[in-house]
Amino acid sequence: MAHVPLVPIGTSREQAADSRTFDEQRQALGNLEAALASRRAAVHAGWGDTYVARVHAKGKLTARERVARLIDPGTRTFEVGTFVNDGLVFGDKLTSPAAGVVTAFCRVEGRWCMVIANDNTVASGSWWPLTPEKIERAQTMALRLRLPTIYLVDCSGLFLPEQSKSFPGATGAGHIFKMNSLLSANGVPQLAGVFGDCIAGGGYMPIISDRVYMTEQAYMVIAGAALIKGAKSQKLTSLDIGGPEVHVHLSGCADRRVPNDEVLIDCLRREVRKLPSSGADFYRGDAGAIDPLFPAHELCGLMPVDHREGYDAYQVLARLCDQSLFWELMPDAGEEMICGVGRIGGLYAGFIINRQGLVGDPEHPGARRPGGTLYRAGIAKISAFSRACDSDGLPIIWLQDISGFDIGVEAERQGLLAYGSNLIYTNSTNTTPMFTVLLRKASGAGYYAMAGLPYDPVVQLSTCLTRLSVMEGRTLAIATYNTKLDDDFEILAKDPDERRAIESGMRSVEQRIEADMDPYVAARQMDTDEIVGVSELRSYLCALVEMSYQYPGYRRVKNPRIWTMHDLAVLTGGIR
């Protein structure tokens, strides 16, 4: 029973796709991912070289330079929320790249941490609309995975011209401090480095942290010098009011003062070094992280850019799982869904993916029906698998490419509403970490059922191909103008002017919905956590799965001898 029967899946690139198709698809996706890289670079530049120079002139590092110094040499950051507020303009033609804050998973002294760093090149690290929500989302990720959280604070408080969009509301700026409290209450270590401005709400953020360091240029104040001058006619500097001399030696609101940014970052690394090391190696056992037999970068040529074209879902799994080995559960039920267990980075995870193309129809032997849709057996199958993963403590990776639920008379008679509700209940009550990837289509209630963002995955990733919406633009246009169309969706009107008006209206609806499906729109408004390149998927997922095993003791993780998976395998396909 202890044996986990991983078997090879997938085929070589040459067998999976002919060279012409592979090259065309790789070129099309490559263009999209080159644009992604360019847009990332623009965000990373903040407000540009002039503002970087201003920071350096003060003898300080920029936020991204601080992060680069903090992380372990030779490692990369896995940023989330890069495109929050992307393309939005505030006030007098001002932008807020990444909402003025860097949030990223970083490896520090061998431990995965969540790092939250105010971008001091963007309005002195101010909080813009959605900045609080972005910080809170990062804090929630850290809480769910019990990751040490490091705040690199250089924040001049709310960007006041837009305060009405970031101060009030259930997730307004003050909610950050509740998240500080919840992290503390759940035993998640919090470290804060204060590098400069730390005003009003920015002043509260570090206080609940377990360690607070301040540089000689840093200050923490409820109100800055300018406000006090106006209110009390006192001529003071912010350093006089709340610098390290006050908070380290008098108030006790900070623990240590250090001369500069570099020393502070070294001190933070030293603090992380004192924390328990990762449990990931323990859970790996004798297994190491082994690359897939078929390279992950080949995914770029195997996934069609056109969402209407199919592909082999096994080829995707074969380029994500270690050694391209996989244990498929319940293969004879719900053909439209594939679920099973594989290792990623040497650690076990559950995988659920939509099969594309045509699949069999058990209700009508010999007939075929579209994959990428949830039917009764597939829903029941992934519900049972999701519950088994939760019972066994396996993190779940949901790989969405879904058009939605089956519809029609037969679907209703089969009770798809109830089966779907069972799946939603399962995913709503799971405690094991879940990570969702929107490969291409993420449509309708299928998006919800497969652990879309409203169902609290720890992280939701999109690709450059992602189309997130209730339904496709053309379908929605038909639904909008349904009363003006016949059964074949042809316009009923005979009057030329009326026909032109209907055609124009339908075209306008379709174009608007298609524009709304842009993954950058979803990322801008925090409907997805990050846009990643298809070739980056494995590295992101390896990191996320390792994080879910880092902190032992906060959730159940069974050893493979007693997995519920073995029971499922026997009951659905073994000797009984």
From TrEMBL:
Domain of life: Bacteria
Pfam families assigned to the protein according to its UniProt record, in alphabetical order: Carboxyl_trans
GO terms assigned for molecular function: transferase activity
Gene3D superfamilies to which the protein is assigned, alphabetical: 2-enoyl-CoA Hydratase, Chain A, domain 1
Record-linked PROSITE patterns: COA_CT_CTER, COA_CT_NTER
Domain CoA carboxyltransferase C-terminal: 291-567
Alphabetical keyword list: Transferase
TM region(s), chain numbering: none
Protein name: Carboxyl transferase domain-containing protein
Organism from which the protein derives: Nannocystis radixulma
